[in-house]
Amino acid sequence: MLVLRAVLIELEELDVKIVQTARTSLSDYLRGATGTFLKFVWRIYRVKSIRFAVQSPWEHRPRLYSISRLGLKGIGKQLCRYHEGSNAEIEKQWYCNRPAVSPNGFCSEHQRSPLAYYEKCVAGNWGACYTVDRLWAGEKYAVYLLAFGNNTFKAGMTRAWRIYTRVAEQPHTVACIVNVYDSVVSARQTERKLGKMVKVSEGMGVKRETRLALSLEKIANRMALEEEAKRLASLAARVAEEENAELFSILPRHTELFANAKLVGFSDLVGRPLEIIDYWGGYLLVKSNNKYYLVEKKNILHRIVRVFELVH
After folding, report:
1. What is the mean pLDDT of residues 51-74?
2. Which of 102, 130, 172, 224 could pair with 218 as two cysteines, CB 3.0-4.6 Å apart?
3. Integer Cα distance of 80 and 274 in angstroms
4. Measured between alpha carbons, how far is 301 from 246 in angstroms, rounded to an integer?
5. Domain count, the chain
């Protein structure tokens, strides 16, 4: 038995482009003036490699593996998500192995931990946000904008060191960091303010499967992807507070395979040998019996998994 604690990706830079857009203030717009022009650097990355943080249910420290094949016998109970230690050295982190009892995945002992309060803050509990600022001094938070292929954008927030990981967990075409804050309350206030703008939402408002299809369609067409970058740059020019704000995209290695794979649950793949092919948008792309499937990462993380095959 084992517990998958995290999916870690290494990125490779494919290209760097410049996106130019007009920065027009409201008064300029009302006068019909064009305002000044801004140039955004747009960095295009691709997932280079995937590793998994794997833990024994009886131990507290995970090990990192590049898993190529995985065979599931069954998926069991969820363990507590609480962990502590260096973000840069996951093998030195300590994970709780008590059963999760709360809806957000924490045990009775860690329901009042800073990490648990942070999850409540992200979910919209303002009191929890103030508690996080008191307990997590020194943490930084990034507010970002995300495009995913239709005419709206998502405003989001994450811990600054997780920004690329967080964006890679969501189907997207282009993203941009609006600002970085020392306070999660300030970050949430900005996120909420952005979410009230026209064509911007804190929540997605679009089903995840639809966002996946829309994003992959744009990614597969370079001209369409460039139009996405221009759209986001136009919005970022109005709201970004970061000096030298950059756009970035994280692409899968196998866009066409992603687009044609079947969405299933992990329970549908129990008993089958799975070849791990790719990861993007919060989905693992796996192959079994010459067929490709997409499964959501979140549905297997922190759960006790019984396996009949594990190749790394």
Report:
1. 94
2. 224
3. 26
4. 31
5. 1
